[in-house]
Amino acid sequence: MLQTVLSYQNSEALPRDLFGAIANLKRDLNAVILAHYYQDPDIQDIADYIGDSLGLSQQAASTDADVIVFAGVHFMAETAKILNPHRLVLLPDLEAGCSLADSCPADAFAAFKAAHPGHVVVSYINCTAEIKALSDIICTSSNAVKIVQQIPPDQPIIFAPDRNLGRYVMEQTGREMVLWQGSCMVHETFSERKIVQLQIEHPEAEVIAHPECEPAVLRHAHYIGSTTALLSYCQKSESRAFIVATEPGIIHQMQKAEPAKTFIPAPPLNQCACNECPHMRLNTLEKLYLCMKNRQPEITLSEEIQAAALRPIQRMLEMS
Question: pLDDT over 70 for what percent of the chain?
Answer without folding.
Answer: 95
